[in-house]
Amino acid sequence: MSRRVVLWVAFAIVHVAIARLGFVLPNEPMGDVYRVYQPWSACALWGGVEGFCPAGREIMGITVPWVYPQLALVPMVLAWLFAWTGSYTVGWVVMVVLANAGAFALLVGRGRSRGRSGAAWFWLASIALLGPVGLYRLDGFTAALAVAGCLWLAGRPFVASALLAIATWIKVWPAALLAAAVITGRRRGPVVIGALVVSAVTLIVVVAGGGGAYAFGFVQGQTDRGLQIEAPVSAFYLWRAVLGLPGSQVFYDGGLLTFQVTGPQVDALIAIMTPLLAFAMIAVVAIGARKAWLGARYAVLFPPLALTVVMTFIVVNKVGSPQFASWIAAPLVLGLVLDRRRWRGPASLALVTVLLTQLVYPLLYAGVLTTAPLPIAVLTVRNALYLALLVWALVRLVRVPVRPGIPRSAPSALTTSI
């Protein structure tokens, strides 16, 4: 069989197996789909039909505030188109697999490039090792858009930017990739215009639907959140709970449907986390902007800058959901396409990181909630690997060579086929 056929066979095997595991593994890794995505979308479509919306018809982000950007409702609604395959949950995973297939086809191409084939194997491995949470969450859908967007940035910047902007209005995090693209791209105009067009259309529809008051409600929603148990910053309180120290414990936030930690001075820490994340992101962006100003090539600068901003978004964050691990794929896929030798190390580290993430959730999650030592130790190691990836990316970013005296608009050596 050809290299391309082997890759597609592997794609099918991985996705069928992981989709099935969503129904088999403990702690219901597909639970968000039927517990929240299905009711939210059914409520928007049909109101009180089947008891989904007892208070009457509500459209999340339009008639009521929401923690997600408004376009998050789009894939939730689209999943109903595939519900005939068995259920809404099955329809959801079919939709995500189709999105992955589109991005995978773009990545593999004709199967002749070793760099692209290696990146494809890495992405498949990361999907397999992360497990069901990578398919049964919004993040998995946006990860596919992000991979496609990163691959298209050089040759089709407007389309790539539009894809990344759509992904941003679904789950915020791809904004980090958009920022990196604006800073490093040779053709910034189409990138900016693509993002503005998507954002403008989204806001016009939201306002026209009567949701102007909630247009940016997701920003406030994230600001008001506490420390989620999986976030790196929560380790201090988790280990206090493991040691039985008074005041530190895990509790369930029924409003946000997440488990959080509490303990001494937790409110002060919660208050500084959002400004700290903003400062860290600005600092990383400033490093990238200076490199671009000094003539760093797009092909060399964009991948480490993209990985650095994504990892900063993960590490310096008071939210740490397991599906965040799917964000890592897009910048690493592009890095492997462009320079597989240099990016092989961080890609391998990322695979260990996503494997530990699946161990944390769903396999050891009951122990995490009860602050058992072994699950908390696994979670701590996973977060340490997140930090290691951030350090590698930041060091690589700082070491990106520049070419003083060369205009910022000088063509890069990036292959136009991407």
Q: If you had to describe this structure to a student in words, what would you say it looks like?
A:
- The chain is mainly alpha-helical.
- It has one domain (3-398).
- 64% of the residues lie in helices and 3% in strands.
- The chain has 16 helices and three strands.
- The protein has a three-stranded antiparallel beta sheet.
- Helix 1 packs antiparallel against helix 4 (88-108).
- The radius of gyration is 21 Å and the shape is globular.
- It starts with a helix and ends in a 20-residue tail after the last helix.
- Mean pLDDT is 92; it is low at 407-418.
Question: Which spans have pLDDT < 50 for at least 5 consecutive residues?
Answer: 407-418
Percent strand: under 5%
Order of helices and strands: HHHHHHHHHHEHEEHHHHH
Number of E strands:
3
Helix content: 55-70%
Main sheet attributes: strand count, strand direction, barrel closure: 3 strands, antiparallel
What is this structure's SSE topology?
Layout: H1 3-21, H2 31-46, H3 73-78, H4 88-108, H5 114-130, H6 138-152, H7 157-171, H8 175-184, H9 188-208, H10 217-223, E1 227-228, H11 235-242, E2 249-253, E3 258-262, H12 266-293, H13 298-315, H14 329-363, H15 365-369, H16 373-398
Properties at a glance:
single chain, 3-stranded antiparallel sheet, 16 helices, 3 strands, 64% helix, 3% strand, globular, disordered C terminus
